[in-house]
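User: I'm preparing a small set of examples for a lab meeting where we compare how different chains pack in three dimensions. I only have the primary sequence for this one, and I'd like the structure in token form so I can line it up with the others. Please keep the answer compact; I'll paste it straight into my notes.
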Amino acid sequence: MAFNINPFKKSQTNPSSQSMFSRSSGASGNDSSPKTDLSALDFSNTGQQAVIEVTEIATGIGVVYEEAAVLYANGNDRDAEQLLTAVFDDPTATVGEGLWMMLLDLYRLTGQRERFDARVIDYARRFERSPPAWEDLSLQPAKRRTDAAALINLPAALSAQASQQLQQLSVIARKSGTLRIDLGRVRSIDDQGCLLVSQTLAQLAADRVKLTIFNASRLVDLLSPKVKPGQPENRDYWMLMLEMLKYTGESSRFEDMAVDYAVTFEESPPSWESKQPALGEEESAASGVPSGLSEEEFAFDSELVGSCSETIRKLDEFASDRQSVIVDCCQLRRVDFVAAGSLFNALASLQARGKSVQLNKVNAMVGALMRVMSIDQVAQVTLRG
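Assistant: Understood. Below is the structure token output for the 385-residue chain.
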């Protein structure tokens, strides 16, 4: 069951219920701020929507929405729950779907099944439709395999400019003793790039790094035009192509090329050794995302805290060759205030570069913080059901 909701417009409140946040805007229907999936309550008539907005603003529920989001972001689950339930228990308050989803998701995030069940009955009556199903979100989602090797995506152009990334790659590999490289994004390679890649692979072999290469056929196709039997030139291209054929598992093509190499350069060629990834490993591991997630989707882990610089770096790298970026947030339980600021800056940067970002399956507590921090102005935010 999917909900695309933005329960409250940012609004001015009276001094007695002023929010801790300085951002506000008029409460009229003239709000010209960009609309997102987080801002589309589906009422049957506009009159009902107007009444609810006025009631919520007058009772300060918009302030509760903001403050409950921040309390949860700071780890104060109990205080956030007390703040929300106080509104629900107030007979004079008319509560919109936004706060309902926050409270229900808070129960799911804290594993409170009985309280959730008690509230969903009222939810069904209030909105005359099936409520969200129970799902225990309090359990920490399964972490990605801790023994999985780091996955490095090489850039589209392998040239001298790739030198720094290849150096960093070598550092990571030496520290962990294992590494995965994905060549799926490579679109070109020149003489300097060929030399750098060859030197890097030789160094990894010397360091006894366990190496897995995905999409090696992409590089084989790029190298093939540079390899001409009977013309003893471009030796680095020959050697790199022979190495890549080990990762594609093309033994017959390797043997034919090895014979051509021996005749062309009058020296013994490298010997065959299959290094092809295990069946199914390329599809699941090369995507760099949890099993069941499309390779076109990025995924956030259970919590984003502090500067979350590594997550931001990976997101930016993932978005480098995409115009539309989809981020799966089904495992994202919490974002703290500092991380929300970092995320806003990163998403604003992507937006400025002409990229669109969708944050999918966000829980309502995190979604509320994204609203407070204006993240919904630089990305499309869709709540989970």
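A couple of notes for your slides: The first strand starts at residue 150 and ends at 153. The two ends are 5 Å apart (CA to CA).

User: Perfect, thanks.
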